[in-house]
Design brief:
The complex is a heterodimer of chains A (113) and B (114). Chain A is mostly beta strands and 113 residues long. Chain A is built from no helices and 11 strands. The radius of gyration of chain A is 13 Å and the shape is globular. In chain B, strands 2, 5, 6, 10, 11 and 12 form a 6-stranded mixed β-sheet that branches. A 4-stranded antiparallel β-sheet of chain B has the order 3-9-8-7, with no helix packed on it. A two-stranded antiparallel ribbon of chain B has the order 1-4. The chains are: A mainly beta (113), B mainly beta (114).
Chain lengths: 113, 114
């Protein structure tokens, strides 16, 4: 079974631009979560989707948004990029509705110049 | 507020030595507890989890962790460290009340000396 796939692996953008990151969960997994990882801050929860519905959202500005498609694939979008948005963005999927075990992708490393 | 504290940012041990990584949590009820490991350039891999029952849980790669409710701790241990254990380790509190999110500690980076 293929793991969680995130694309692209690396991304370089400039301030003010927008970016879209993609995540394909493990086949059969219906929940997708997104986390932002920065040195010293650990992982910060962005949002979680289950069957195309956002069930929870972290404390991030409205520039961060996401969605999930009917095939469970998910995208997150960051508009008006700021230098502080530079981070590793991790996607995780889980099978059931209670997220008892997360399977992580390798992440998208975003650098904002 | 819910939180997870990993007091050690860096730990260095010699290969073959024992290891204990500390984790303290703040949560309103008995939480789901997890330890994940992250190798450079990779995502996180689950080492072990505690939901209920026996407070000593066994995981992959020879790791174990003990849940101590009185101390709000969930420390990770390994009796003999291998060079391949060098990585970053994250403790996390998971959703028990339908919040559908994990709260992660800031991580402990483990260095193993040959």
């Amino acid at each position: 079974k293929a793991g969680v796939t995130q694309t692209p692996r690396y991304l370089i953008k400039t301030r003010g631009q927008q970016v879209t990151l993609s995540c394909s969960p493990i086949s059969g997994h219906r929940s997708v979560s997104w986390y932002q990882q920065t040195p010293g801050q650990g992982l910060q929860f962005l949002f979680e989707y289950f069957s195309e519905t956002q069930r929870n959202k972290g404390n991030f500005p409205g520039r961060f948004s996401g969605r999930q498609f009917s095939n469970s694939r998910s995208e997150m979008n960051v508009s008006t990029l700021e230098l502080g948005d530079s981070a590793l963005y991790l996607c995780a999927s889980s099978q059931g509705p209670t997220n008892e075990k997360l399977f992580f992708g390798s992440g998208t490393q975003l650098s904002v110049l | 507020a819910q939180s997870v504290t990993q007091p050690d940012i860096h730990i260095t041990v010699s290969e073959g030595a024992s290891l204990e990584l500390r984790c303290n949590y703040s949560y309103g009820a008995t939480p789901y507890l997890f330890w994940y490991v992250q190798s450079p350039g990779q995502g996180l891999q689950l080492l072990l989890k505690y939901f209920s029952g026996d407070t000593l849980v066994q995981g992959i790669k020879g790791f174990e962790a003990e849940f101590k409710r009185s101390q709000s701790s969930f420390n990770l241990r390994k009796p003999s460290v291998h060079w391949s254990d060098a990585a970053e380790y994250f403790c996390a509190v998971g959703a028990t009340s339908g919040t559908y999110k994990y709260i992660f500690g800031t991580g402990t980076r483990l260095k193993v000396l040959a």
